[in-house]
Amino acid sequence: MTNDLFALQDRVAMVTGGNSGIGRAMALALRDAGAKVFIAARRADRNVEALAELGPTAAACELDVGNEVSVEKAMQFAVKRFGRLDILVNNAGTAHRASVM
Fold first, then answer.
1. In this structure, are residues 66 and 59 in contact, taking their beta carbons and an 8 Å threshold?
2. What gap in Å lies between CA 33 and CA 64, rounded to an integer?
3. Which tens digits make up the pLDDT trace of 19-49?
4. Are 74 and 40 in contact (CB under 8 A)?
5. How far is CA 75 from CA 21, 39, 84, in A?
6. Angle at the Cα of 97 (from 94 to 100), degrees rounded to 5?
7. Scanning 8, 17, 69, 83, which has its CA 20 to 30 A from the CA of 61?
8. pLDDT of the residue at 11
């Protein structure tokens, strides 16, 4: 009964930064709950690796969350591939590393 509470059949989930770390774990959990998963992340090679693990219903595209054009392309890809987007896990981020001095 509890599994039905979290069932995501017929839902489409996008996970930014979904090819490694927490994002990849979220993508796998969403897949296991029944969602069709779309990962969007910068590194194409890691996207390929993650897709192999996620299975044939998953999709991926390159995405730089710091670039508005890249975000728009990713959203267009998701809608074209799946027809809609139900869930967004906004996991990716940017960082500026510099000395405190």
1. no
2. 27
3. 999 999 999 999 999 999 999 999 999 999 9
4. yes
5. 22, 11, 9
6. 140
7. 8
8. 95
